[in-house]
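Before relying on records like the one below, remember that each one covers exactly one chain. Contacts with other chains, cofactors or solvent are not represented anywhere in the record.
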Amino acid sequence: MKPFIVRAAAVIGDIAAAVFDTLKEEESRKRLSYSGILEVDTMTGKEFEIFLYIHFEKLGYNVTLTQDSQDYGADLILYKDGLKTVVQAKRSKNPVGIKAVQEVAGAVRHYKGNKGRVITNNKFTENACKLAKSNDVELWDRKRLIEFILIAKNCK
């Protein structure tokens, strides 16, 4: 009888842990969905990716997060209106340079995307802007990110 009780307790413990993890994930998603630019400035890179994921979903995009390593320069893949947009998310304390543009330009080809986009909470260097223009990569700086957040927050 005791082994059965021990196994039952282990199963109940596993179920409780799974429920707890789900509640934590839901709480985290809710917190991220209500975050503004000041909260973005304190996020980890992964939190910023999930933040963008949530907000793009609100705007009707189908969104895929790429794996954490060997992502070929993409953090999110956006699908909407028959277009595939490859996104590099850069939450940064410093202006974003050409490396992010190079990565997303390569990722567009790898993922067979229609366009590339780099999104940051900061600004871009002059060289990053030049390279983005010659590679048809959209750059969303802090101002554009704030506009995006406000639009997504007003979307039900």
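The radius of gyration is 19 Å.
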